[in-house]
Amino acid sequence: MKICATASRTFWCVFDLAGKEQKLTSLERTSTAPDFWDDPQTAQTTMREITELRDTIDLWRGIQRQIDEDLGLLELAIAENDPDLGTQIEQSTQELTKKIDQLEFELMLSGQYDKRPAILAIHAGAGGTEAQDWAQMLLRMYLRWGERHGYKTEILDETPGEEAGVKSVTIELRGPFAYGYLKSERGVHRLVRLSPFDAAHRRHTSFALVEVMPEPEGAAKIQINPDELKIDVFRSSGAGGQNVQKTSTAVRVTHIPTGIVVTCQNERSQLQNKETALTILAARLAEIEEQKREAERAAIKGVHVEAGWGNQIRSYILHPYNMVKDHRTNTETSNTTAVLDGEIDPFMESYLQWKLGEEA
């Protein structure tokens, strides 16, 4: 019993719960200053950090209470030789182990943006309706994954396909470590299946490019010079080019130094579309900076692979057999239905573990 308690205390030190509590106290003291809201962006960042710290501390304190309760029950079960209590403790221990494993895994997500919400864009490759339908399938997969994790998801911009699917779509996923997990999805995704759009029902191969960007925290994180922007407005349109707005509410923002172009037409007002487009642009610029840092680290090791069209990261085979395989980690499964329904955590986790080993 003493060994378990000592191990628990040692484990707590590794996660530095006391340090997090001290930081929370300091931030809460700062938030009560009379001039705290004079700088709204900094204040919002501080309040967000306070919320995250409180959630983390409450979670760990809950785990600590559960461990203490289970240790007490274990002593009682041993003293009274009660098998029912033993079963109860075993179930509780399994649940705690799962929680702690997950929290321990999240310690690997220590990148600058890993805790941030993510903006994910999907672009259909060549192949018309077939590729656009594949992009739609990926959209559903990521929305289902977000739903499974309790993330808030929102489609920021969408260009429908002519007959089915989407040409491109941009979504936001808000939740703890959204970018940290989803960054593993960046790259080309390949689908092999019998085409539902082919009268001869032949096998087709389709590609889609997935981009993942961190949502920057406040304008102070990513400085965009207004003089470096070209902003055009035009009428929003739906599938087939039908006007859904009689006024010019859609916005196209071009970042002149990088050539990045962002369009948004989902919102009803020009101002809302402009704000969304600027958010996506800031996320793209943040991702460029992140990739530069990765390239610098990789250059030292002599290895770097771009997530471009020539480098597929994962294959989804629906015919002549069922298999999803990640080409970076060799993680695979035959349960393609579950994967396309959002069960992609094993691929994400194996990638992050592989990435950690690459950077070691």
What is the CATH T-level topology of the largest domain?
Alpha-Beta Plaits
Count the helices. How many? 9
The span between the termini is: 36 Å
Mean pLDDT: 84
Name the strands of the widest sheet in spatial order. Answer: 2-3-1-5-4-9-10-11
Any low-confidence stretches, pLDDT <50, length ≥5?
A: 1-11, 239-245, 303-307
CATH architecture of the largest domain: 2-Layer Sandwich
SS-based structural class?
alpha+beta
Note the main sheet.
8 strands, mixed
What does the radius of gyration come to? Answer: 24 Å
Main CATH class of the largest domain: Alpha Beta
Order of secondary-structure elements: HHHHEHEEHEEEEEHEEEHH
Give the strand tally.
11
Helix content: 40-55%
Structural domain count:
3
How would you sum up the global shape? globular
Characterization of this structure:
The chain is α+β, with helices and mostly antiparallel strands. It is 48% helix and 21% strand. The strands form 2 sheets. It has an 8-stranded mixed beta sheet. It has a 3-stranded antiparallel beta sheet with strand order 6-7-8, with helices on one face. Strand 2 (152-160) and strand 3 form a beta hairpin. Helix 2 runs antiparallel to helix 3 and helix 3 packs antiparallel against helix 4 (83-106). The longest helix is centred in the first third of the chain and has 41 residues, at 40-80. Residues 1-11, 239-245 and 303-307 have low confidence and may be disordered.
